[in-house]
């Protein structure tokens, strides 16, 4: 393998997952268990059982991980993992929840599904995957756990099992996406009570495999990616250190599981026409998460290595060559433009950003970087044009409204600044602050009709 996971600047952090499990244990005690005479909702995306509560739990855990710096926030990397997930979700009918995919800055091999469709994948697992299809198979598997409502099935199965044991199993399932073994290390519990649950959650793994492989192939990924990744995990499981790998505790791999997945493969309809930037993505991921970066490999990897060592000038020549040869490659263009910015060549950087936007209109990462650069150059009107487009296309991105607040402030547009502040607070989970600002806007004597109408609409939405 080209990458050495040991070179990651973070270390595998079992305590991070213990934190997640403990948080889930705290939140899950507030979930109302199903009584014996209550009917379980049907499985799948048609099932609606307290989705808002699910999302609240997942969001709280996600924010905890984010606040501790455990989530990779680089926009290019975040965009890649979410676009990969979006391809899979595009073939899901009657979807009732939004999904959020994120990269966990941890060198351990793990992936997990939080309540509400929050799906995390470790850097260590991504670097083990050799193809985009293999990584997509992991996402498909975790999506399947969420869609199949396995947490609720555990509640149904919990008759005769103590609450403490149930929370152990359920927390382990939600975080690991599989058995309770990882959670058991944190909570302990009665081994006898857990054994029946362990057998039950092993069945969940097979169910998620079956649904996941259909999802994978329906999205025009190569279904063999799941089989290949199982084989990679199988080789790892033979290592004497495999007991320290969280993913193998929560997703045990057996010869039967591999052969069943292989038997479910359908004839391929041909290779997807979507570009495959997986190897570039892996290089950039390793570059952002390592202290040392080997210069061997592709020209892009060599350029990143030179940037890492502080030789941006030499890196620029490599990036320029790559970009001119592949002007439609977003990764090459973005990295080249960003490096030009660092070298103080903003005019050239702007040209590259705008050329990329001709190919990828309103791409968030490119648009945001261009807007930020224009704002720094005091070209506020130009920056505002891009920011307003981002507001339309990405109305749930807090970062857009944060930038709008600063732009409106520098342009002395007080009312619009207050509107942007209110929307930022609304998205940031501070409804009281948002309500206060919308109310202040409506009290202004010189507010225009469009702004007044929007403020009333937002205020009604928050008070509903």
3D structure, described in words:
The chain has a domain at 5-263. The chain is built from 23 helices and 3 strands. It is globular and about 70 Å long. The chain is 64% helix and 3% strand. It is mainly alpha-helical. Strands 1-3-2 form a 3-stranded mixed beta sheet.
Total E-strand runs: 3
Mean model confidence by pLDDT: 79
Q: How would you spell out the order of helices and strands?
A: HHHEEEHHHHHHHHHHHHHHHHHHHH
Sheet with most strands: strand arrangement? 1-3-2
Task: Tell me the fraction of residues in β-strands, as a range.
Answer: under 5%
Structural Rg: 24 Å
Main sheet makeup:
3 strands, mixed
Q: What is the count of helical runs?
A: 23
Helix content: 55-70%
What is the assembly state of the chains in this entry? single chain
SS-based class:
mainly alpha
Low-confidence stretches: 17-49, 163-195
**Shape summary:** globular
CA(first)-CA(last) distance: 54 Å
Provide the descriptors you would attach to this structure in a database record:
464 residues, mainly alpha, three-stranded mixed sheet, 3 strands, globular
Short description:
It contains 23 helices and three strands. With 464 residues, it is mainly alpha-helical.
Present the secondary structure layout:
Layout (H helix, E strand, L loop, with lengths): L13 H15 L22 H17 L7 H15 L10 E5 L6 E4 L3 E5 H6 L3 H16 L2 H8 L5 H14 L4 H7 L3 H28 L5 H14 L8 H5 L4 H9 L14 H11 L10 H10 L3 H14 L4 H13 L3 H14 L4 H13 L3 H14 L4 H13 L3 H14 L3 H13 L5 H15 L1
Parallel strand pairs: 1-3
Antiparallel strand pairs: 2-3
Helix pairs in contact: 1-2, 1-7, 3-5, 5-9, 5-10, 6-7, 7-8, 7-9, 10-12, 13-14, 14-15, 15-16, 16-17, 17-18, 18-19, 19-20, 20-21, 21-22, 22-23
